[in-house]
Every structure is written in C-alpha cells, then in structure tokens.
Amino acid sequence: MARKLPRLQANEVIRILQQHGFALISQRGSHQKWRNDDTGKQVIVPYHKGKQLPVGTLRSIIEGSGIPEEKFHS
Questions:
Q1: Is residue 69 part of a domain?
Q2: Are 69 and 59 contacting, i.e. CB atoms less than 8 angstroms apart?
C-alpha cells in the first residue's frame, strides 16, 4: 500500500528540487518556476513562507518533476 504524502512547506520541496538538479529560473508574485536543464522538466512552486502546500499541489510538483515520490518522504 502506498504511503500517504507528507505535508511539506515550499522551502522543503525546494530543497528536494535543488538536490535533484532544479534551479530557480523566474518568479512572478509568490509562484516560483524551477527547471532541470538535464531532464527538461519544469515545475511551479507556490511559495508562501510557513504554510504547507496542499496535497494536490504537492502531487502535481512530484509528477511534473519526475522525482520519485519516496524522495519526498523524510
């Protein structure tokens, strides 16, 4: 059975993205665009300091990044 997704804040997700080769390429308001030039994958991370990302948003980031879901479980 698949484990439930953890509730993560944007800064925790960003740290995981950076560990997997993603770099910040732009920001508009509270939304940051992260891209991995090696894989061509790109994700948008809503950055609201201190707030947890909604589960659906986190799932979308995981699917869009191509990073295995297990890497988001601490």
A1: no
A2: no
Percent of the chain residues past pLDDT 90, beyond the cut: 86
> Each residue of 25-47: pLDDT tens digit?
999 999 999 999 999 999 999 99
- Helix (H) / strand (E) element for 17: namely helix 10-19
CA distance 35 to 5: 22
Please give the pLDDT value at position 49. 87
Rounded distance between C-alpha atoms, residue 24 and residue 74, angstroms: 23
Query: Is 80 exceeded by the pLDDT of residue 2?
Result: no
Asked, for residue 72, whether it belongs to a domain, the answer is: no
Q: Is residue 21 part of a domain?
A: yes
User: How far out from the chain centre does Cα 69 lie?
Assistant: 11
Q: What is the signed CA dihedral for 18, 22, 24, 29, rounded to 10 degrees?
A: -90
